[in-house]
Amino acid sequence: MQRQSWEQLPAKQLGGSTLPASVVWMSDSGNLSQVSHVQVVMRVTTILRSLVVASLVIAGSAIRASSQQVDVIRGQVVGPEGKPLEDAKVTATSLSGNVNRSARTDKNGRYTITFPGGEGDYFVEVAAIGYAARRFEVKRTADQEILVADARLLRAAGQLDTVRDSCCRREAPSRRWSARHSESCWTARST
User: Fold this and answer.
1) pLDDT under 70 in the chain at which residues?
2) How would you label 163-186 residue by residue, b for 16+ Cβ within 10 Å and e otherwise?
3) Can you tell me the distance from the alpha carbon of 85 to that of 128, in angstroms, rounded to the nearest whole number?
4) Do both 86 and 130 map to the same domain?
5) What does the DSSP assignment read for the chain?
6) 1 domain residue, yes or no
7) Are 148 and 91 contained in the same domain?
8) 10 near 18, Cβ under 8 Å?
9) Counting Cβ atoms within 10 Å, is residue 89 exposed (0-12), middle (13-18) or buried (19+)?
10) Using alpha carbons only, how large is the chain's radius of gyration in Å?
11) pLDDT at 20
12) Could you read off the pLDDT of 150-166 as tens digits, one per residue?
């Protein structure tokens, strides 16, 4: 079959516009074949439908992936001198679900807390022995992947109550250390 241009093909009136009655189409095998205009429209329509369906599937999976986002809260806890605090307890609480997740800081004062399906809005509370606890809010802005929650703790100024040793009585002036008692406990023995 000889390849023809659009001008050489017989024209047909459809809806007021002149269209060729047949078109030259190349098949997968590389052979040229003549197909009707209706067949070309059907093939193009099928391809467009496939593209629309694929686009919707991709968009739907992207929406599901964004709703199942994992929030990562990271930070460092330091003391008033700027030195890292080891073994401080960090607790993050989601505002809407009131779900708690906790972590301890490492020797560098760093911690990481993850919230699967996170909402992006949390209260973070940091506590360490000898330091005043601190609580603050952390919110995701825009498309943040990691929420940073650093904290500087101040020393706690507190006074302990009087400590009383009730391990044993101290009666006699002559006292000897007894190995079976703790260091803070003396026993009175007569010599």
Assistant:
1) 1-35, 60-68, 159-160, 166-191
2) eeeeeeeeeeeeeeeeeeeeeeeb
3) 8
4) yes
5) -----GGGSPEEEETTEEEESEEEEE-TTS-EEEEEHHHHHHHHHHHHHHHHHHHHHHHHHHHHHHHTPEEEEEEEEE-TTSPBPTT-EEEEEETTT--EEEEE--TTSEEEEEEET--SEEEEEEE-TTB--EEEEEE--TT-SEEE--EEPPBP---PPPP---S----SS-EE--TTS-TT--EE---
6) no
7) yes
8) no
9) middle
10) 39
11) 54
12) 999 999 877 667 777 76
Question: pLDDT at position 187, please?
Answer: 45
Q: Does one domain contain both 74 and 112?
A: yes
Give the count of domains, the chain. Answer: 3
**What is the pLDDT at residue 149?**
93
pLDDT reported for residue 86? 95
Please give the residue range of the domain that contains residue 138.
70-152
pTM for this prediction: 0.51
Q: How many residues does the chain have?
A: 191
Q: What is the CATH number of the domain that holds 130?
A: 2.60.40.1120
